[in-house]
Amino acid sequence: MNTALDIRHITVSLNNSVVLSNVSTAIPLGSLIGIIGPNGAGKTTLLRCVIGLIKPLAGSITKHSTLQHRCAIAYVPQRSTVDWDFPATVYDVVLMGRYGHIGWFKRPGLIDHELCKQALQQVGMLELADKPIGHLSGGQQQRVFVARALAQQAQLYILDEPFIGIDTITEQSLIVLFSSLRDQGKTIIIVHHDLATAQRYFDWVVLVNKQLIAAGPTQTIFTTEHINKTYMRPEAQ
Amino acid sequence: MIYLIQLQIIIIALLVTIACVIPGNFLVLRGVALMSDAISHAILPGIVIMFLCVGTLNSPLLIIGASLAGLLTVITTEALMQTQCIKKDTALGLVYPFFFSIGVLLISACARNVHLDTDMVLLGELAFAPFNRLICFGYDIGPVALWTMIIIIISNASCAWLFYKELIISTFDPILAHMQHIRPSYLYYGLMMLTAITTVAAFDAVGSIVVVALMICPPAIAYVLCNSIHQMIWLSLSIGCYATLIGYIGAWYADVSIAGSIATAQGLVLFIVILLAPQQGIIARMRINQKLRTQHALDCIVLYLQEQPFKKVNIAYLSHQLRWSKNHALTIIAHGVTQGKLMSDNDTLYLPN
Amino acid sequence: MIYEHILACIIVCTALLGCALGALGSFVILRNNSFLGDMISHAALPGIAATFFITHSVNPALLMLGGICSGIISVFGLHIITHYTRIKKETAIGIILSVFFGIGLVIISHIQKHSIAQQAVLNKFLFGCIATLLLTDTILIFLVSVGILTIVWLLHKEFTLSTFDPSFAHTIGFSNQTIEIINMMLLVVAMIIGLHAVGVILVSTLLIAPAAAARQWAMRMPLMMLYAMFIGSACCISGTVLSCYVRHIPTGPTITILLCCVVVYSLLYAPHRGIWFANSCKRTFGDQECNL
């Protein structure tokens, strides 16, 4: 198994309390991975460590050689973190996905515009390219973020609760899109909240509740015993 | 004689502090602290219009004019925010220069020959406060500022006491307040009126910017240190008075503006608290983080030792395996030995028992 | 002749300031930093006073340098308070604003024991020297404005990215800290130069009002900046000309009131976002079709 991310002994503390303790796991390359756990389990914290937004108290994360380039990791945040009243159209936001490749000072070129249009086509938003982002529905907003990540041509996609508050049709079309990305050899990590669908969607699951409960292929790891252990209160573990 | 004047100045300064801190607590909790800054500038046209009506600067009607101007500021800001096209801080940042400019235009158009300066809004002079006396039925009963501030304190304190739980709910959860038929908007406008009245009464003594310092700094300091609103209010009153005294003493020794010195002292106390507070301060947090790091590293060593066949390891080999420097390893080991979790013997490290 | 010369200087200076501050202000209001300009200009007072105290010189460039230093310290102080305590940004801005101003008052009162001189200093602080701008001021403001506009043009996509989605900017390799530092430096320099020229009230309004008005007309960032620059300079020029021809009206407040009126007009009548527009659309087409 090729490893996309080798997470070793990650411990994170926020506001003087430990939110993640000694998490060690290996994320396989070219898979659709689900990170599952209750609220406050440290799932978003783990993602932010991987991206480099938070410095862990201890531990290290080693990335595969194909993920060393600065644009190799695409991050799709929770929708609430962005100001939707910002003066930007759908196209402007997707074009931002190319800025990492363009670099400081330079302007987007023809290739960047081409890749943007392709990304919008893949998520089915090409007709809405000139719409201001404040006028979009929840599902459309999520698709814009995914298109931005696609335009970035990343190797690793990290999505934080992408299916919250969106309709079933959008959710299905996104999963089909992610599966095709996985078939192209990309790695997709999704923080997911819905146990009912997790078993269908993911090849590999990581169960987290302030520490690693279990990680591995969905068939073997996604068992009742492990789920109970993940969702139990920390004192009872 | 001179000590009597000094005493009066100190008392007035303390009264101003108490009067400002009471509404300041609720402003800080609601996150509308800058409203006090905006109101202190925007009351200028209210004062000018009242002055043009009554012809003198010493009338209590000026306070009414200023309070109405303060209320108008708040109403206009809320109206701008209702449009959903402008954010709260932008709306506030537009409204108060607008009103202030109207005040300035009124002064230059109508009141040019009179001693009405825009600086009066920014500057106040505590040193002169004791000399403005209140004569009642022929008896001199003390400085005007003293009695004004006492009345303001009584009204602020009684409003805060009467409406305490309503203020708390509407600050924390406006929707809950609405469902319990507590009108959050009435409370909000009432709070702003009180702020405007306090600002007007106080700026004659200390100037408007220092009023802002007194309204915001002591509650902010208490906010950092306390976990309950009750504690916060009492602590902010004590810290505010304490900092005011320090500021006054500093101004006395250095012969500088008393108002400026009070604001500086408030800032100084805040700075010290941020740095040195026992659990929330920067230094305390760095220490706690360091302890957590050390503890984690110690746990790593214990885990490692537990996996070894003979539960012992050479220290140099351990540092090589964990990729730590020798000094770092020795520091952690020393902690472990003190806590009784490790035992060391020259170059070997092993678990007790 | 001299009168026209001064008038030309005032017009050019205020128009350039309107341009530069309008461009910067677009990012300021979108980051919810509207009071940051106010904070920086109030916080400049101790720097200016301390520079005068140390050097005994009234050279404007030197005093402004002092103001810029204390402006930078104040921004740094704001960063420390918001990141290391639970005090919210708005409260922190109020703290820094009032405490620094208090320190400035202390220094001024130490230099000048007479309250009349203190009033003169504060008068200049409030209103700048807008009525007496000279050629040297014009050249300085021209150079600074052109510098600011050039940097904003070069880096506008980085500023936009960092304002809209800082986490994303970080993941694709842009350093948010660097971008924010550059943004803050430009803001501090612009505010202090503006403070010297037009005073604290007008410079805060020039930062926010053109951008707030432009936001109602523009759907995209580059357009918003251009509109803000245009509105800023147009209002400055009109306000200056108006205050010239009507007696007893000071220039600063006139420009402020004009700017606020433009904002209100934009809120009411701008297409797509204006209230009047939305209401008349609803009356004509009904609620459903008015999601513009």
Short description:
The complex is a heterotrimer of chains A (237), B (353) and C (292). Chain B has 16 helices and five strands. In chain B, helix 1 crosses helix 11, helix 2 packs across helix 4 and helix 2 crosses helix 10.
Give a written overview of the molecule.
The complex is a heterotrimer of chains A (237), B (353) and C (292). Chain A has 237 residues and is an alpha/beta fold. Chain A has nine helices and nine strands. In chain A, α4 packs across α5 (138-151). The model of chain A has no long low-confidence stretch (mean pLDDT 88). Chain B folds into two domains: 2-216, Orthogonal Bundle (ABC transporter involved in vitamin B12 uptake, BtuC), CATH 1.10.3470.10; 283-350, Arc Repressor Mutant, subunit A, CATH 1.10.10. In chain B, 75% of the residues lie in helices and 5% in strands. Chain C has a single domain (2-290), classed as ABC transporter involved in vitamin B12 uptake, BtuC (Orthogonal Bundle). The longest helix of chain C is centred in the middle third of the chain and has 30 residues, at 135-164. The chains are: A alpha/beta (237), B mainly alpha (353), C mainly alpha (292).
